[in-house]
Specification:
Elements: H1 5-23, E1 29-30, E2 42-45, E3 54-56, E4 63-66, E5 75-78, E6 94-97, E7 105-110, E8 118-125, E9 138-143, E10 146-152, E11 160-167, E12 173-182, E13 186-187, E14 189-195, E15 207-217, E16 237-239, E17 245-249, E18 255-256, H2 266-269, E19 271-275, E20 282-287, E21 299-305, E22 319-323, E23 326-327, E24 339-344, E25 354-361, E26 373-381, H3 389-402, E27 423-426, E28 434-439, E29 446-448, E30 461-463, E31 468-471, E32 485-487, E33 492-493, H4 499-506, E34 511-513, H5 553-558, H6 573-587, E35 617-619, H7 621-627, E36 634-638, E37 641-647, E38 653-658, H8 667-679, E39 688-694, E40 697-703, H9 710-715, H10 726-746, E41 751-752, E42 761-763, E43 769-771, E44 778-779, E45 788-789, H11 802-807, E46 809-810, H12 812-828, E47 833-834, E48 840-841, H13 842-851, H14 869-882, H15 893-913
Parallel strand pairs: 2-4, 15-16, 18-24, 28-30, 29-31, 30-32, 31-33, 32-34, 35-39
Antiparallel strand pairs: 1-3, 2-14, 3-4, 5-6, 6-13, 7-12, 8-11, 8-14, 9-10, 9-12, 11-15, 15-26, 17-19, 20-25, 21-24, 21-26, 22-23, 22-25, 27-28, 36-37, 37-38, 38-40, 39-40, 41-44, 42-43, 45-46, 47-48
The structure holds 2-acetamido-2-deoxy-beta-D-glucopyranose (5 copies).
GO cellular component, one term: plasma membrane
Protein name: non-specific serine/threonine protein kinase
Signal peptide: 1-28
Length: 941
């Protein structure tokens, strides 16, 4: 036979098909509901306006939808009317075309799909002079990062259809049109059909099949068979050659073998051709189609056979299959009656300009060969490396969230010359490309700062400056270990810089720019800085520094609802501490990484005046499971549930309080507690590291206090417990006093702890003291000096301010009273209520003893006299002032801090000078230290 007909005849057949398909598409109009239909099919009418209704193809009953939801580029055009024929399918009427010049890549993202599944992708083109230029373009098609084919539009009214079968590695298939400088790419329609992975075994993850021809031999009606005859919606093009072939057909169903690799529809197999001249072979040829990209394409030819005639017993249909003269099977082939057999070359054929398949009868054959259908593919390597999957997902999420236009289509980093604008990629031989830089400066981004940025694990550089980003900064960014620069300047971010990032900036591994975010930190403020005491020797800066903010102080502090009653339930810290201490003994040597640094303030003046505040991390339940190793180690139990020991990713130990179902703490209160604690940060307040609100799970994550509560150290039953030295006690007293002072003076409105006691002072591994249990924390307005009246007195007997008990008037002096009791416990090592001989308040006990003259009568004997008598006197004096009956006579916490600082200084100087010298103090002078007025003493009855 002459010429390579399958391809040559294709145009004619397509024209026929247009007429036939033309009936299609004129069917009913249907509202678009979904994008992937229930067969997993995607059928896009490219260039159909976004808001246009989808429609159902009347023959296939498949629904076409607009392509607008699958691509972010291109413009819609109508085909020139002169090319529109009445029977032409509607999907051909319009196109989407892609300007952007040579080198531009525009990609459809088809999905969501089942990842790793084989798919058939079909792209259809008919130019129809849509642009009025009368110049048919040539451009490339890519599937994913792999070159697929070159679309060569021969003329305006010839439809071109390209099909590929390939494994789609991810959960979407990217189909890209690439402008190669020979005209503007356009597309008319795009189909995607899933295939079971067992079909077309020669297509795998590294090899795709590009369709050349799929022919159905023998039908006389000229109808293209597709869905629903073919459940996979392949197009089976009718072929016949009346001069050479005669048609055979059957009405009987032709079956596929079990596990057939091709699943050819019965309707296709029910027709076949056989040579008119029974001694002639059946022959067909195709021309190789080399291109610049694929100079020597390899071809796979699949022949589908089935016997359609019940042959007499003495008859035999047997033939050889040869390709370019080479025998395919070593023997003759006899098709089975009404069963489909396929013959194909497993190894693609290369190296010829033309390929010639011949089916000729064996000598024993009594009837001529038969052929029902063929498929010819060229194989396509799909070995193009794609960007690391997690980066692809993260970039897709970022693109989706911010609706980034740019050229953000297809694979982010691959091929190299199509990498997304603003992206820096790292290309190594051994691993897939990863995103290392992301510049979205001045890109019109709005909304929150997506946590998807943290999905780019290799990110080194992130520039989000000059956008309109709002919300807070996610702490997850700090987990990007390679990240060295984040630029957030000129946005509308608020909240605080999360602790993780602060830590990174402090250890110098990260530069963070965040100037000109007017709301950053101002909205979440609760506490303001303490005025730095000029004569203070404590060089540690107060824990929170708010730099000059564009908002006035008034705006910042008075904008917060006054006397916001922060009724939050008591944390079961007492129990927690007991357990923690036991744990602590074995874990004292674990370096506390979050301490100090987590509460230390940090500020940076960069253009705008910036204040920095730590916010809390939000944990997912699964993170907590990981942190607590499946909630293994219970270290405490309380009304809200159990407290578990945990270890964070960075090695920081934490205490995780998980709210139990039976908890009497409501969800709102739980969250309110988290929010309140989130705003209070001081190195001497036990800090909340984060919280969890994940479905029904709620938890608070605290810093781990390895040495438990102060009361246990002072009067613990455990005799192995080392006794705190006077110097250690002074430091603990000072640190707790500073924590309280912060609540009273550093916060607006001021906060009253209401439950100051030695069991609520926790010690970390370095014996640094922090106030815990903010469950009874109350806010009051000190400016108008009104007192908070509470309906009932709360607190702990023995620490309770008698004035508060009597009048229900709560002031911060109530905390001062309680702290006085704490100081007395620290000096004496006695409990706040002495049991022997009968219950006596420690205040009364100390007053009585001191009235008799000797400080040694009250000092904890377990210190073996290793204390400076002066400072003990000074502290005792302060303690008694604190416990004065009249609140007005009590010092403020600021005064107390000053005294404690002085004493500690004396102690430190003393020990340094007299290192190792034991001073048996007794008596001691009382110069300058006020006398306590026994008349004002009061105890709790
Ligand atoms: C895909 O098939 C080709 C040809 O049979 C083979 O060389 C290649 O190794 C296969 N790839 C995979 C991943 O199996
Ligand atoms: C079979 O076909 C080949 C090539 O097409 C031809 O050379 C050969 O003679 C044929 N054999 C028979 C038995 O017809
Ligand atoms: C043809 O038939 C003869 C006799 O049955 C047998 O010996 C021979 O092998 C057959 N030839 C082929 C090619 O099958
Ligand atoms: C930022 O967003 C706000 C609120 O939507 C809007 O008023 C403002 O114009 C935006 N600014 C820029 C530069 O886009
Ligand atoms: C610290 O300064 C304040 C006033 O600035 C002063 O009243 C107080 O006596 C000073 N304290 C010490 C220990 O110098």
């Amino acid at each position: 036979m002459e010429g390579p007909w399958p391809r040559a005849m294709a145009a004619w057949w397509w024209w026929m098909s247009l007429l036939l398909l033309g009936i299609a598409g004129c069917g009913g109009v249907l509202q678009v509901h979904g994008q992937v239909d229930n067969l997993g099919f995607i059928s896009l009418d490219c260039g159909l306006p976004e808001n246009a209704a989808g429609y159902v193809d009347s023959t296939t009953k498949l629904r076409f939808t607009s392509d607008a939801g699958f691509i972010n580029a291109g413009t819609n055009h109508n085909m020139s009317s002169e090319y529109i024929t009445p029977l032409m399918g509607k999907s051909w009427h319009n196109v989407r075309s892609f300007g952007g010049g040579a080198g531009a890549r525009s990609c459809y993202t088809l999905g969501p799909l089942v990842a790793g599944l084989k798919h058939l992708v079909r792209a259809k083109f008919m130019y129809g002079n849509y642009d009025g230029l009368n110049k048919a373009p040539v451009f490339d098609l890519h599937v994913g990062v792999n070159y697929w084919t070159t679309v060569n539009i021969s003329n305006a009214n010839t439809p071109e259809i390209y099909e590929i079968i390939a494994v789609v590695p991810g959960d979407s298939a990217e189909v890209c049109l690439v402008n190669t400088g020979s005209g503007t790419p356009f597309i008319s329609a795009l189909d995607l059909r899933p295939l079971e992975n067992g079909l077309y075994p020669m297509s795998n993850s590294t090899q795709g099949l590009v369709l050349l021809t799929r022919s159905n031999f023998g039908p006389t009606d000229g109808v293209i068979l597709r869905y629903p005859d073919d459940p996979h919606d392949r197009f089976w093009i009718p072929q016949s050659k009346p001069t050479e072939w005669s048609e055979i057909s059957t009405a009987k169903r032709v079956h596929n073998m079990e596990g057939s690799s091709f699943d050819v529809p019965s309707a296709v197999m029910q027709t076949a051709v056989t040579p008119i001249n029974s001694s002639s072979p059946i022959q067909f040829t195709w021309d190789a189609e080399p291109s610049a990209n694929v100079p020597d394409p390899g071809y796979i030819c699949i022949l589908h056979f089935s016997e359609l005639q019940p042959l007499p017993v003495n008859a035999l249909r047997q033939f050889y299959v040869t390709l370019n003269g080479q025998l395919w099977l070593g023997k003759g082939l006899t098709p089975q009656y009404l069963y489909t057999n396929a013959v194909f070359n497993g190894i693609p054929s290369h190296g010829s300009h033309q390929y010639n398949v011949s089916l000729n009868a064996t000598t024993n054959s009594t009837v001529p060969p038969i052929l029902n259908a063929i498929e010819i593919f060229s194989v396509l390597p799909t070995t193009g490396i794609t960007t690391a999957t997690q980066d692809v997902s993260a970039m897709a999420a970022i693109r989706g969230m911010y609706k980034v236009k740019k050229n953000w289509m297809g694979d982010p980093c691959m091929p190299k010359n199509f990498a997304w604008k603003g992206l820096g990629c790292s290309y190594t031989v051994s691993s897939p490309p990863i995103v290392t830089g992301l510049n979205l400066s001045s890109s019109g981004l709005s909304g929150n700062l997506s946590s998807s940025f943290a999905g780019l694990k290799g990110l080194q550089y992130l520039d989000l400056s000059r956008n309109n980003l709002t919300g807070s900064i996610p702490d997850t960014l700090s987990q990007l270990s390679s990240l060295t620069l984040i630029d957030l300047t000129d946005n509308q971010l608020n909240g605080s810089i999360p602790p993780g990032l602060v830590k990174r900036t402090q250890d110098g591994s990260l530069t963070l720019r965040y100037g000109n975010n007017p709301n950053l930190c101002s909205s979440g403020n609760y506490c303001r800085p303490l005025e730095k005491q000029k004569n203070s020797t404590d060089t540690r800066s107060p824990s929170v520094i708010i730099m000059d903010s564009p908002l006035s102080q008034t705006d910042i502090y008075y904008g917060i609802p006054m006397v916001a009653v922060l009724v939050i339930l008591v944390l079961s810290v007492v129990i927690l501490c007991i357990k923690m201490r036991r744990q602590g003994r074995t874990s004292n040597n674990i370096k506390r990484q979050n301490e100090a640094s987590i509460t230390r303030s940090h500020s940076q003046n960069n253009k705008g005046h910036i204040s920095l505040r730590f916010d809390n991390r939000r944990f997912t339940y699964s993170e907590l499971v990981a942190i607590t190793n499946g909630f293994q180690q219970v270290i405490g139990r309380g009304g809200f549930g159990k407290v578990y020991q945990g270890l964070m990713e960075d090695g920081t130990q934490v205490a995780v309080k998980l709210r139990s179902e039976s908890s009497d703490q409501g969800e709102q209160e739980f969250l309110a507690e988290a929010q309140t604690l989130a705003k209070i940060h001081h190195k001497n307040l036990v800090s909340l590291i984060g919280y969890c609100k994940d479905r029904e799970y709620m938890a608070l994550v605290y810093e781990y206090m390895a040495q438990g509560a102060l009361d246990e150290h002072l009067n613990g039953k455990d005799n192995n417990q080392s006794i705190l030295t006077w110097r250690q006690r002074l430091r603990i007293a000072l640190e707790s006093a500073q924590g309280l002072e912060y609540l009273h003076k550093g916060c607006n409105p001021p906060l009253i702890h209401r439950d100051v006691k030695t069991s609520n002072i926790l010690l970390n591994a370095n014996l640094e003291a922090k106030i815990a249990d903010f469950g009874l924390l109350k806010a009051f307005n000190s400016n108008s000096d009104t007192h908070v009246s509470s309906a009932r007195v709360v607190g702990t007997l023995g620490y309770l301010d008698p004035e508060y008990q009597a009048t229900f008037q709560l002031t911060n002096k109530s905390d001062v009273f309680s702290f006085g009791v704490v100081l007395l416990e620290i000096i004496t090592g006695q409990r706040h209520i002495l049991k022997d001989p009968e219950p006596t308040s420690i205040v009364q006990w100390v007053r009585q003893r001191l009235a008799c003259g000797s400080i040694e009568g009250v000092v904890d004997t377990r210190m073996h006299g290793d204390h400076n008598v002066n400072s003990v006197w000074k502290i005792a004096d302060t303690a008694l002032k604190c416990t004065a009956h009249n609140p007005m006579q009590r010092p403020t916490m600021t005064d107390v801090v000053a005294v404690l600082q002085d004493c500690l200084e004396i102690e430190v100087a003393h020990n340094d000078v007299n290192a190792g010298i034991y001073l048996a103090g007794s008596g001691g002078d009382m110069n300058g230290y006020g006398r306590y007025d026994i008349d004002t003493s009061s105890g709790v009855s």
